[in-house]
Design a protein that fits this description.
Elements (H helix, E strand, L loop, with lengths): L6 H13 L1 H6 L2 H25 L1
């Protein structure tokens, strides 16, 4: 029985795992919800500052 190992496939899977960590975080629903919340707070503060100056 000869066992062969495909080293190229293994190297690609290891290199993919290193670069995908941030992508996996940004696809999470909790990250998306918090990003919407932060952008809402930012837009609300900008809107209030514009209303005060007018």
């Amino acid at each position: 029985m000869n066992k062969t190992f495909n080293i190229k496939t293994r190297d690609r899977s290891i290199s993919k795992k290193k670069g995908v960590e941030f992508s996996q975080i940004t696809n999470h629903w909790l990250f998306k919800l918090s990003a919407i919340g932060v952008s809402f707070v930012f837009l609300y503060s900008v809107f209030n500052s514009v209303v005060i100056t007018i």
